[in-house]
Amino acid sequence: MDGNGNSPILSVRNVRKYFGGIKAVDGVSLDVASQRITGLIGPNGAGKTTLFNVISGLYKADAGEIYFKGERIDGLSLHQTFQKGLCRTFQISRELKLMTVLENLMLVPPGQEGENLWKTWFIPLRVRRQESEIREKALQALDSVGLLHLKDEYAGNLSGGQKRLLELARTMMAEPELILFDEPGAGVNPSERRVLAEHIRRLVSEQGVTVFLIGHEMELVMDVCDPIIVMDRGKKLTEGSPEEIGRDPRVLEIYLGGGSQ
Amino acid sequence: MGIDIGGILSFLASFAIMAAIYAIFSMGLNVQWGYTGLVNFGIAGFFCIGAYTSALVTTPLPTGVLADYVDQAIGLNQPFLVGVLAAAITSGLWAALIGLLTLRLRADYLAISTIGLAETLRLFFNNEPWLANGPEGLVGLPKPLYGLVPPQYYNYLYLAIVLAFLALIYIAIERGIRSPWGRVLRAMREDEVMTSANGKNVFLFKLQSLVVGAMIMGIGGALYAHYSAAVQPSLFTPMFGTFIIWAMLSLGGTGNNKGAILGGFVVWAIWSWSTFLIRNVVPAGFQTRAPYIRYILIGLLLVIIMLRRPKGLIGEERQVSRF
Lengths: 261, 323
Hints:
The complex is a heterodimer.
Chain A: E1 8-19, E2 22-33, E3 37-41, H1 48-56, E4 63-68, E5 71-72, H2 78-83, E6 86-88, H3 101-106, H4 117-122, H5 124-145, H6 160-174, E7 178-182, H7 190-207, E8 210-214, H8 218-224, E9 228-232, E10 235-240, H9 242-247, H10 249-256
Chain B: H1 5-35, H2 43-58, H3 66-69, H4 80-102, H5 107-127, H6 129-132, E1 138-139, H7 154-178, H8 180-190, H9 192-197, H10 202-228, E2 230-231, H11 238-252, H12 257-281, H13 291-308
Antiparallel strand pairs in B: 1-2
């Protein structure tokens, strides 16, 4: 339980992930409170993305436990954590290049009957009905991020900022309970970044989603996240409100270069 | 001087039968490579399994004098359609076995396993005569609906049968590809990690794609076997059984079933025409070596397509999902 009476939706306990001799994540424990935007910051190489990769099931943890909604998920693979209601984005956009923007989104919804080949042959009408619902939903998601005019464009042809918006729309299609955003503002100009921040806030306030967000641009993180968790060299350094983090000398030191050690 | 219309038509019919059978193989490869990005260099193996399965299922065990000359372990004497169905199933099982072993590994393992196991199969049938009579193979496969028309017109009937299979496979695959199933396959081709980040079990979908493509190839193998009424291991070489089909799909249009069919007809036309050309142009002393010129032709064709028109004659449509 945190101060607002929200129990954590995600709990990470003593998670370790080593690559040979490199301790990318070295015994991290943290909680992500439900229906908040929790930030995760730290210098390059702090282990933030590795931690996300472990939580989402892309990597297996070497040690430790991860609980999502009270259920242990650290043995699950990437597609299984998605099915549990956990959707992640990537630091570098991984759009499906030779598929249209609309198809990129129509792929996402879980429970599509048409993913079963037999059903496409023997109950085509039901598949068709569901498919038109999915299309409708995808068009709405595109409309809300302002990409509707690009629906028939190859996703590979979008600009960097548009790819970020497409990822955002993808998280809307997934209807997850927890979204892990890995540097949503990377490669995006400041005005687009403000649009993104506003969308992320609305996901939480309007749809009750929980967000856990890695940020590199301090203004985005300070602006939308509360609380903020700081990682350094594979370990959790501290956690607090944006004001507390902004005042913490240890945080300033790792960001401004640890000359005083 | 009268033109021999009957002769031309008969030639065209036998050309079209082979081209249509190859178009079926090309569609099978399109499911695997065109839509899913799976590299199958062992089409000949599925061709071989399909042809031999149908041969063993539809012929009776040799009796009397014949039994002294023909070794055959299985002979179920079933009708043609049972043979085709069995060919699809055994070919699919063969694919499932290869897929279970290799699809969790990096992509190149599938390529090397398929080509290696295809060669293994060919050599197995060649060196293990107890199963299907070794290098001589099996002859006398039943021709479906034989006797319905006079023998000199039978090719037209068989062409109709092959075209019916072609149409049925085309419709079934188009349905699947235009649906969410096909969308997952294409997503895996673009980015496997992203596809699993969208909750799809990448391994299971790749396995399905490999098996469905292989079943189509198995049907192609059975149709070929009943057309020539004979199977021998020497048919299933990497060239005749695999790479010519890659050339067909690449030329016609990877990721487009109409392209896959078109490629089958165009490349088979080039292949057949080059036979005549070589026979008439090459000096008599080189006739025995000349067929290898065709290998060079197919290789050259593949290179030119890759350089000049990587999407083929009709490439993939922009929006494939359309259900």
